[in-house]
């Protein structure tokens, strides 16, 4: 008996030594990892931001944790973020490569790729998005067109309280579809419903323990565990986008693009069969990236904005007064009007700050050995730029813990944007849909606030602002009370 216990003890000790993780020399400090799991068992995955805050108080603005055996450096606060993402822009512009999300996208698209594929597709996306803003049917018209569907839905429900979650999701999805395909989908359409459902399912798995297990324990990756669903869903989404691309190929008129897909097909034709990274598989990955990077982010921000507007009627009223004065008899708002609406602009930026939509950013990686704030960080290290720590940094905001548009107003009541406003991140990887997102948020909020008053339903209890943590954060489900303004 004693012999077996000693053998067991020796066995455990050997395993411990074998899988022991040791921080490299002069690596950022952090909690002691345990074999195989790293620090994951010490972190509360449902309230990770709070744990990250405590670690920052203990170890400083740059610290490290272990995801399984993989070290990750967490960056906190605006100064560190600027130093890494802007000053050392190229060094911190990589992406980690062996995570579940990488295996899902199969090296395609723009969000997770690196090197020439990333550069060429990022450039192409930026130019095409800009051109659509200038083209015959401007981006603004596309967005206003989609807003008319929400307006009529809300008009039908005036006097009631609705569940806005799916509505805003479909609106954001359709606006991107207008850009990608030149067309919108009815809210009952199969393509729209299927993709939103599959994306929701995948988001749930990514935000849960199975994604962690996949990333942490490569040996388990081929087993029939629940994370396989992510890849099955990925294939279904690619198939349905492939059908859109086939239809576009059949009906397109070269040189007369209806949306980004046609532009891409024109570009493929122009480039011919050279070694370029433009091909049909890439196109589908690219569409998938743009659709999903632009849907949840925008719709969750809107959900936070309306939650705070309903529960801060003074802020809502002040925006409505400003909107009425600036728009007067004008039929529709235009993005240009924002320059005359400092308070409304401040409210929208404040909504983005408190929404904290992508709290831990999309993970980065170092592209070569470097030094940050006195620590050595080797090439290929996973970097977690904690944007939440910047948007809530106490030294950077007048009212860090409240919803208060004054965070974006100076003493003269003019709109100002502090450097810690980083919901879209910073540097060469910064969100490429920022322009589109800002236009969407402005036009949707201004149009709806002009037409409706939003009230917190009497029977809804005390509002709960605590976000549901995830790659993108969302508020807990709530109902939106809708009243027509006269
Ligand atoms: C309020 C809305 C949005 C927020 C808060 C947001 C935020 C972000 C953040 C934090 C990143 C990661 C940046 C980094 O890695 O440093 C990102 C990347 C990205 N976003 Fe957005 N985003 C929004 C809307 C959009 C929209 C509408 C689109 C679609 C056109 C879009 C497309 C992308 C793409 C393609 C990337 C990857 C860029 C790259 O890796 O080079 N985003 N976004």
TrEMBL record:
SUPFAM superfamilies given in the database record: Cytochrome P450 (SSF48264)
Ranges in a coiled coil: none
Keywords: Heme, Iron, Membrane, Metal-binding, Monooxygenase, Oxidoreductase, Signal
First and last residue of the signal peptide: 1-24
Cofactor: heme
Any Pfam family matching the protein: p450
Chief localization: membrane
The keyword GTP-binding is annotated on this UniProt entry: no
InterPro entries per UniProt: Cyt_P450 (IPR001128), Cyt_P450_CS (IPR017972), Cyt_P450_E_grp-I (IPR002401), Cyt_P450_sf (IPR036396), Cytochrome_P450_fam2 (IPR050182)
Domain of life, source organism: Eukaryota
Binding site residues for heme: 431
GO cellular component: cytoplasm; membrane
Biological processes annotated in GO: organic acid metabolic process; xenobiotic metabolic process
Subcellular location: Membrane
GO molecular-function terms, A-Z: heme binding; iron ion binding; oxidoreductase activity, acting on paired donors, with incorporation or reduction of molecular oxygen, reduced flavin or flavoprotein as one donor, and incorporation of one atom of oxygen
Family membership noted in the UniProt record: Belongs to the cytochrome P450 family.
Name assigned to this protein: Cytochrome P450
Organism: Synaphobranchus kaupii
């Amino acid at each position: 008996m004693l012999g077996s216990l000693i053998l067991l003890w020796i066995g455990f000790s050997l395993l411990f030594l074998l899988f022991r993780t040791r921080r490299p020399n002069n690596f950022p400090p952090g909690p002691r990892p345990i074999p195989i799991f790293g620090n994951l068992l010490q972190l509360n995955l449902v309230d990770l931001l709070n744990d990250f805050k405590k670690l920052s108080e203990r170890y400083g603005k740059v610290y490290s944790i272990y995801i399984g055996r993989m070290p990750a450096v967490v960056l906190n606060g605006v100064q560190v973020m600027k130093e890494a993402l802007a000053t050392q822009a190229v060094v911190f512009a990589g992406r980690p490569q062996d995570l579940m999300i990488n295996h899902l996208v199969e090296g395609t698209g723009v969000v997770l790729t690196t090197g020439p594929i990333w550069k060429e597709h990022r450039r192409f996306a930026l130019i095409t998005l800009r051109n659509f803003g200038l083209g015959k049917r401007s981006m603004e018209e596309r967005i206003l067109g989609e807003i008319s569907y929400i307006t009529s839905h809300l008009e039908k429900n005036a006097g009631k309280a609705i569940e806005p979650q799916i509505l805003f999701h479909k609106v954001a999805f359709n606006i991107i579809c207008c850009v990608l395909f030149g067309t919108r989908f009815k809210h009952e359409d199969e393509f729209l419903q299927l993709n939103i459902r599959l994306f929701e399912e995948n988001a749930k798995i990514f935000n849960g323990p199975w994604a962690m297990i996949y990333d942490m324990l490569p040996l388990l990756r081929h087993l029939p565990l629940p994370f396989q669903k992510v890849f099955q869903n990925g294939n279904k989404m690619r198939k349905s986008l492939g059908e859109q691309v086939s239809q576009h190929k059949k009906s397109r008129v070269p040189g007369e693009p209806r949306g980004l897909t046609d532009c891409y097909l024109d570009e493929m034709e122009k480039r011919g069969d050279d070694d370029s990274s433009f091909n049909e598989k890439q196109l589908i990955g690219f569409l998938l990236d743009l659709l999903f990077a632009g849907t949840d982010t925008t719709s969750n921000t809107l959900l936070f904005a309306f939650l705070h507007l309903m529960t801060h009627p003074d802020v809502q009223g002040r925006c409505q007064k400003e909107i009425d004065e600036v728009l007067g008899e004008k039929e529709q708002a235009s993005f240009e009007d924002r320059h005359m609406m400092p308070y409304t602009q401040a409210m929208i930026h404040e909504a983005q700050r408190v929404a904290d939509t992508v709290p831990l950013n999309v993970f980065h990686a170092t592209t070569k050995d470097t030094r940050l704030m006195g620590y050595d960080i080797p090439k290929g290290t996973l970097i977690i730029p904690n944007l939440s720590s910047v948007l809530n940094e106490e030294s950077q905001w007048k009212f860090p813990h409240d919803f208060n548009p004054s965070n974006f107003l100076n003493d003269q009541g003019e709109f100002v944007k502090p450097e810690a406003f980083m919901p879209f991140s910073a540097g060469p990887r910064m969100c490429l849909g920022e322009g589109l997102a800002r236009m969407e948020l402005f036009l949707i909020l201004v149009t709806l606030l002009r037409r409706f008053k939003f009230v917190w339903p009497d029977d809804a209890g005390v509002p709960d602002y605590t976000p549901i943590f995830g790659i993108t954060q969302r508020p807990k489900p709530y109902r939106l009370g809708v009243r027509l303004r006269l």
